[in-house]
Amino acid sequence: MDLTALRAALDEAPVRRVTGRLVQAVGPLLEAELPGAMLGSVWRVEPKAVCEVVGFRERRALLMPLEDTEGVTFGAPVTHLTDTLTVSVGPELLGRVVDGLGRAIDGRPLPATSIRRKVSGSAPPPLQRALITEPLATGVRVIDGLCTLGIGQRMSIMAGSGVGKSTLLGAIARNVRVDANVICLVGERGREVREFLETNLGEEGLKRSVLVVATSEQSPAQQVKAPFLATTIAEALRDAGMNVLLMVDSLTRLALAQRQIGLAAGEPPTTRGFTPSVFGLMPKLLERAGPGANGKSITGLYTVLVEGDDINDPIGDAVRGIVDGHLVLTRKLASHNHYPAVDVLESLSRLMPRVTDDKHRSAAGRCRDLLATWAENEELVRLGAYRKGSSPQVDEAIDRMPHLLRFLQQGGEGTSFDETLRQLDAAIGAKPPHGRPTLRPVQR
């Protein structure tokens, strides 16, 4: 009999049974008399409400429920469960769907694993991180060609609602060259979870993925826990020798859940009502991704649902200052049926110069020049106010735009990294370097 899991459970079990009693409930927050309670410890309010200590007020502990509080009564006993939330992790979870507390929600029992880890982990020491030197092939041409990711990079995807974030994440999850995906859906509609599984991810994508789901009707505390749980699962897979892609959709809903907790606990509201704990939470989560000491990495993609399509909203601004680049999806491109709706001129990968060669960077720079020239003169051209021959640069941009659009637009199929570079050369009209054959842009 394998005693490893049993020993781990015994190590985490409380050596004494501590109890208190519930004295107040206001909104989502419960208050209890719990002498010696520790911040972050987990308790059960009888009969079944599991809660986490999120603060203290005078002589009382503030408890945020992780589950439904139906049936809780005044004076109910409060029992200590553990000092910190832990979950079972490991490669055995691949192909499974769990909730924000690590419990299976796909109708099957969780597999037995020998590894248990704290959900609230910490980032690796800076000097133990390996350098990011290799590109990550996502299968999406606009990313691989113009905003190339490195293995272990963290990138935000910033967009308003309904412009194709989930579709883009699904395409990346199906086609990316990694060993495993960990996908976290925070605050999503319940209907969209199955849609993402069957339509965007697909059966083959699920086989090498772990999904962590905390839908919008679940408690704010569980929605906050879900991305940290997903990161813990990704860390375990990385430590098991896998390169992992971690996708969190979305950080904005995480921030809204944490704001609800913070306001209930008495934090002062700051910019647009967000509490200070929201901005302290972001680096704790985002810094955990990246290269590990064993040569394997967690590449992080984090979506930000920007308010009013303003990428400078408080959450977008805070995230952009932490991660290693950003992709901006715009409603204008989506309304023109341009998918993925990535605005190349507004998007940036800070690590692209480190993971690409001179020829690639030159072709990407040339593409950006052509797109910028077109953007500056598009209105004149469409109004008929531009006369051909007035500017060689504008003439070339007009001639190349149909080819560039065919390169930038893509369905759900993946494109290899080498094929992306060949199509990029063809789109800008360059002679193929390194013996690349000239190919016509893909016809849609």
Structure, explained:
It is a single chain. This protein has 444 residues and is of the alpha/beta class. The chain folds into three domains: 4-84, Beta Barrel (Elongation Factor Tu (Ef-tu), domain 3); 87-355, Rossmann fold, CATH 3.40.50; 358-435, Substrate Binding Domain Of Dnak, Chain:A, Domain 2, CATH 1.20.1270.330. Helices cover 36% and strands 21% of the residues. It has 13 helices and 19 strands. The chain has helices at 4-12, 141-146, 165-175, 190-207, 220-239, 251-264, 276-286, 314-320, 331-335, 352-355, 358-383, 392-408, 417-428; strands spanning 19-26, 29-33, 42-45, 49-57, 60-65, 77-82, 86-89, 97-99, 115-118, 135-136, 149-150, 154-159, 180-186, 209-214, 244-249, 290-291, 297-305, 325-328, 348-349. Strands 8, 12, 13, 14, 15, 16, 17, 18 and 19 form a nine-stranded mixed beta sheet that branches. It has a six-stranded antiparallel β-barrel with strand order 1-2-5-4-3-6. A hairpin with a 5-residue loop joins β16 and β17 (297-305). α11 (358-383) crosses α13 (417-428). It is elongated. The model is unreliable at 433-444 (pLDDT under 50).
